[in-house]
Design goal:
The chain is α/β, with parallel strands linked by helices. It has twelve helices and 19 strands. The chain has an eight-stranded mixed sheet, with helices on both faces. Strand 4 and strand 5 form a beta hairpin. It binds flavin-adenine dinucleotide.
């Protein structure tokens, strides 16, 4: 195969996954061009949880210290029953947890994580970043790809990585499998300055209030200046996308019967942003010739395990490893990457759905959940999520 080192790998989408892939490739000596449809590289104002598995990826990408500067290292994951206000279960993510998994558990503002990866890309000669360019399609050629853009131009690439998220254009051409599956669950998100957070809830934890067809998550961000809030409920009313203003009245109706503490948090927020929660059935093939998918474009998942971005970064590191190991034989490397990733990401997709049902249980299911989770050992190695936190 002829390799023209002046032709980059093209990455559609400059989210956490796309930028992570650019950085991972650059660290293997491979040049890429990231094409982002928005007029700037940016993330929304909300938090994100980081399992120990993704800290191994930060390490591989050379950004662990930079990420850690912005992260809050919580000491436990807490599940509360939002009907009676009782503790259901607690997973300590303390020293013992760190020893067991080799890395910590943390929370971070999305913009801080995205910016950290962006800065690392900006300082690397092998990464080119372009905004206001929307990928509309591609053609596989013998030695690479030709990527079509919405402005009518075309760009040659050694390969194409579709990291263009849930509504991926690259996926729709590659797999032609229709729109993502609407879960019927809606997330409303907001951030609250620390001084407005009720004192009883200023906890160094990711706290989840599980209730019938609803749940609320909160945790501290940005050196404890802010609290991240995500309220999830079942609803048929939504605006597609991730940034529409939410209907406060509907949210209050859905949470009217929950315990006073989660209500106290919810009452503090005037404006919520809506996120329609979608996923897809897992697939085992998402590559063809010189084209592959990564992150939400490949395996969109519900957020109930807090792992979508973590999986995108695991993808990025794995993909770059395979490309380097196979001496830039992209079709072979993309097959090997997909083979290495599909069972793990599929497991996260399906387990996340199950966790949604567990969080939203009512009646007998709620009682059984509380008994089951309440009786679980808090030894990190025995966690039902050890397979996830242990990493790929
Ligand atoms: C409520 C909620 C909470 C979550 N919490 C967590 C959590 O705690 N931990 C965690 O790990 N994950 C979490 N996630 C999941 C996480 O947000 C996603 O999995 C992650 O952002 C996916 O990254 P990505 O780069 O694959 O896609 P995206 O972040 O969607 O990025 C795609 C990029 O591609 C661009 N783009 C799209 N189409 C085109 C095109 N045609 N041409 C060019 N550019 C294009 C977009 O503008 C965007 O910049 C959560 C998700 C939700 C909804």
């Amino acid at each position: 195969m002829t390799k023209d080192k002046n032709i980059p790998v093209i990455i559609a989408g400059g989210g956490i996954g796309g930028l992570g892939a650019a950085l991972a490739l650059a660290r293997k000596g491979i040049a890429s061009l990231v094409l982002e449809q928005s007029d700037e590289f940016a993330e929304i104002g909300a938090g994100i949880q980081l399992g120990p598995n993704v800290f191994h990826m930060f390490d591989a990408l050379g950004i662990e210290d930079a990420v850690s500067e912005h992260a809050v290292f919580i000491d436990r994951l807490t599940m509360m029953d939002s009907v009676d206000g009782r503790l259901i279960a607690e997973i300590p993510v303390d020293e013992k947890f760190r020893e067991r998994f080799g890395k910590p558990y943390a929370v971070i503002h999305r913009a801080d994580l995205h910016n950290t990866v962006l800065k690392a890309c900006q300082t690397h000669d092998l990464v080119s970043l372009r905004t206001s360019l929307k990928v509309t399609g591609y053609g596989n050629t013998e030695n690479g790809v030709v990527v079509r853009l919405a402005d009518g131009s075309a760009q040659k690439g050694r390969a194409l990585i579709g990291a263009d998220g849930l509504w991926s254009t690259v996926r729709s051409q590659l797999l032609n499998d229709g729109k993502p599956r609407l879960s019927g669950h809606i997330a409303y998100r907001a951030v609250l300055p620390l001084e407005e957070v009720p004192e009883e809830l200023r906890l160094n934890a990711a706290t989840l209030w599980a209730g019938p067809r609803t749940h609320l998550v909160h945790y501290p961000l940005r050196n404890w200046e802010l609290f991240n809030l995500v309220a999830v409920f079942h609803s048929e009313y939504y605006t597609e996308g991730w940034n529409a203003v939410g209907a406060r009245d509907e949210l209050h109706r859905k949470f009217e019967n929950v315990h006073r503490l989660p209500r106290a948090m919810i009452d503090k927020i005037d404006e919520w942003r809506m996120w329609v929660l979608c996923d897809r059935e897992p697939v085992c093939e998402w590559s063809e010739g010189h084209v592959t998918l990564l992150g939400d474009a490949a395996h969109p998942m519900l957020q109930y395990l807090a792992q979508g971005a973590c999986m995108a970064l695991e993808d990025a590191v794995c993909l770059a490893d395979k490309v380097a190991q196979m001496d830039e034989d992209y079709p072979a490397a993309f097959q090997a990457y997909q083979q290495a990733r599909y069972l793990r990401t599929g497991r996260v997709q399906l387990t996340a759905r199950l966790f949604g049902d567990i969080y939203h249980a009512s009646g007998v299911a709620r009682e059984l959940r509380n008994q089951w989770l309440g009786s679980m050992a808090d030894t990190p190695g025995e966690s039902p999520l050890a397979w996830l936190y242990d990493g790929p």
